[in-house]
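Let's practice the habit of predicting before peeking. Look at the sequence and jot down your guess about where helices and strands might fall. Then scroll down.
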Amino acid sequence: MTIRHRITLLVVLMLVALSAIGGYAVLQTRNSAVDVRQVTQGVVPSALASADLVSEVKDVQLATMTLVYAPDANMVQQAQDQLKSKKASLQAALDVQAKAAQGQAQTGLVAQARESLANYFDAIDQTAQMKAAGKNELAQAFLFANVAQYRDELEGIVETLRIEKNRQKDDAISTLNGTLATTTTAIAAATGAAIALLIAISLLLYRQITRPLSRMQTMMSEIASSQDFTRRVPVGRMDEIGHSIVAFNGMIEKIQQSSLQLKQKTADIQAMLQNMQQGILTVVDGGIVHPEYSAYLEAIFETSEIAGQPLLSLVFDGTDVGSDARSQIEAALDACLGEDSMNFAFNEHLLVNEISKPMADGRVKILDLSWSAITDEDDIVVRLMLCVRDVTELRALAAEAGEQRRRLEMIGEILAVSEEKFHQFVESANCFIHENERIIRQHDTPDLEAVAKLFRNMHTVKGNARTYSFQHLTSIVHDAEQRYDALRQAEGGHEWDQQALIGDLERVKAALEAYATISEVSLGRKGAKGATSAERYLMVDIQLIQQHIQMLESADPSDTDALLSMRESMHRTLRLLGTETLGEALGGVLGSLPSLAHELGKDAPVVRIDDNGYRVKSQAGGTLRNVFTHLLRNCVDHGIEPAAERVAQGKAAAGAIELEMGVDDRALQITISDDGRGLALAKIRRAAIERGWLDEDEAASDETIAGYIFRPGFSTASTVSEVSGRGVGMDAVRDFIRREHGRIELRFTDDRVGAEFRRFQTVVWLPETWAVDSLDSAEAEQERQDVAGRNERAAT
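Done guessing? Here is the structure:
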């Protein structure tokens, strides 16, 4: 039986005079029931829906993190589908909230939530685009920066809306309580007016209506204040109050389910952060690590004491980062936190990106550091996020791969050179290295002449290494050459460090030995140490031997002319054994000229060789290479102009170098010249004046000025490179030639005396025994006359 029926029955039994009192009481009771229904079926469900909004936002956050850290495309697509569904659900929920909004505050919050929702999903879309483009680290940084910012903003608005709805609910319950209290008071007043007649009715009404309502009011208030959604209001009967209690209990059950879902999703997010295989932390004011960080940081730093620690101590203690760098990092942190994001852009270069971190057991980890700024809506840096990766194994693998690549490159460089020339290079380089070691050990203090010899020898080794494109050896030799250059420029002897100089030589020897070992062990080439002198054993073509044996067997002993002709042929053949053409002797040097020209931005020169029928003995090849390495490179570097300049002068784009060899005045004579601008006499004079070799107003002939290029340390190059500019070259050439009892001179080939540039030839005289005439007697005599005539005309 409903409350209305009970009251009606009582009213019928009452006196007509009391019907008005009973009707009034019934009206108040019905109004109270309507208010209860509005609270339980209107206001309270609206508050519940606002709580669901928070859960929906958490769902979006979880789906977004799944999108960023998804290992494959299927999970990415599932996350994107879930995000689309959640976006539509959130928009629909906001539409419901907009319809149920009461007052300007709720309406404004719904509008802000819609705007924030749009910004949030825009940031998510940008993150998805970075993920799709393969920029995973940038997507992660964007997730923890911009996406997190909009997420926090939306959660704040939704939380505010939920609080506003709960406030509305609490106000409604308070109003309901007031209404119920009013009803109770009205009934009590009516009962008091007719106390004699209505005592029984009052007691019945109190027991049937007031007491259940009061009990329901009390329990509702307790549940609302304690937020204990596991409690339920007991249902004693199924009348209007009972139905209201059932509706209230249903609402509480839904709130409980939503709360459990929210806790579960929060736990899932925390579990994801705790199991992420990357160290992530944020830095707040004072350079302190925020308590929220990924658990993997503890595995990286091998400590659980991370939260609240100073960043500099946690990350950089014991590392290879010096005090100056730490001060710069600290200053950069102070300059960024709490300031405009532009400060981070200005100071980001001061933040170290890689460190070597020692562990307690002596292991050293290589850690990659990635910094990013977390800003608020005003673009102010509120935190700095640091992503830490342990790249120790990656660096080790990279180093191993680099060593393998370097070895393969060295094998390719060795294979590009003939076995004989490679061994000649190794022997020559070892000789220069041993001579430098002897010089260093003989001197406790620097000696100008000793330093000059050290520099010349090492510069020659580097030039020969560059000739054969031994890049790895060239770079190491260049480092040793740098120290010699520093000694040449230093004043006094305090910079002479014998042990350091020996150490440089040891590194050069080790690099050279690495090439020799690869050649012998990996490529099966016989080492230079096992080779026998070419002066004792020669390689002869077996067909040539068979040809001369056939000549001997078929010779007629009675034919004197035939025997003399055969003797002349065999004599010429035997004389040519162990010889090579000038082009063959200089093959490696000539082959390196195109790459040298490319380095200098010039076209590869054309080299013409006129040997006049002469060949050189193979044992002379080392000295010729040492000499002409410098001379040929000087032609390309200093003599021949760039292509554009040559074309403007009416010359061919590629320069030309001419080599002529002959025997004159009991000496092997080799002349080298190019069609470049000529010898820069004006530059040479200025350089000589700067060095104090020549007074400013002192008169000097062109020949005297040209002779300065043979002085140690002379250079006209404006910049220092691996090709030129170190003041070594012609002095080294003259030293090599003098060791073999030869000489060198410059010979002008024009009549432009006193000009800024003059065409010239470089003439090298070496022992006549190095040359072998490949022509017969008549041809050789005619050729010698031709050479003498050319020399006479050149001298004239």
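How did you do? The first helix runs from residue 3 to 13.
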